[in-house]
Amino acid sequence: MANNFFHTYYDLLFEKKDYSRETELIFELSEKYGIKSPQKILEIGCGTGNHTKYLLEKNVDLVAIDTDPIMVDLAREKLKNHLRLNLQNIKVEDLAEKDFDLVLAMFNVITYIPTTNELESFMKGVSDRLKSGGVFIFDCWNGIAAIKDPPKTKESEITVNGEKIKVTITPATNFFEQKTKLSYQIADETYLLDQTLWTPLQVLEAAKKASLEIVLSSPLLEPDKQATDKDWKIMFVAKKN
Fold first, then answer.
1. 5-141+199-240 CATH choice from 3.40.50.2000, 3.40.50.150, 3.90.180.10, 3.40.50.1820
2. Nearest to 190 by CA among 164, 166, 173
């Protein structure tokens, strides 16, 4: 296996994720909170381009960014025929483009941000690139739920060229540091991912400092419900003041 084996198998690992429904919900929430037909969209943490391809079906101008260069290369290959897509390997704070109607950061993007200062910098980067009244939609782990009910080891299989390969995800959680390290064991290779267990209050405070008002916090894919301490994944909608 190559050193980037996790990236190679990424789409297989998460093939059951409903990227299509999440994308539809993004547009529904955008309209509900004031941006009826977003024409200029920024996607942060695009990964291999699974939300991206559904966003592009809406015939919009899309800038998609990720800090992982291998992910960007995979997305670029997958979506190479889309002329209205601008893919970049960059942090949001360093992005030149501004005045976006809609910004999204799906699939736990902020959970990978390691420190409070970096979370606040990220939120300011988003705010600086949104037009006034623009909408920011994102999701993340709920640190309260993860601390009360820590993640457990999971086993599954992926099929590659007709061969079943065992996947084991082993978590190690440090409550005092609000961190979980996920160890992905895929065949004979191991890949580590660090997660930060941000509490809703920490997310709201970081957004507030960046002049972003949280107008919705719900369980993922359930926007008609209010998130609680038992909901493992929360979707937020914020508006730029």
1. 3.40.50.150
2. 166
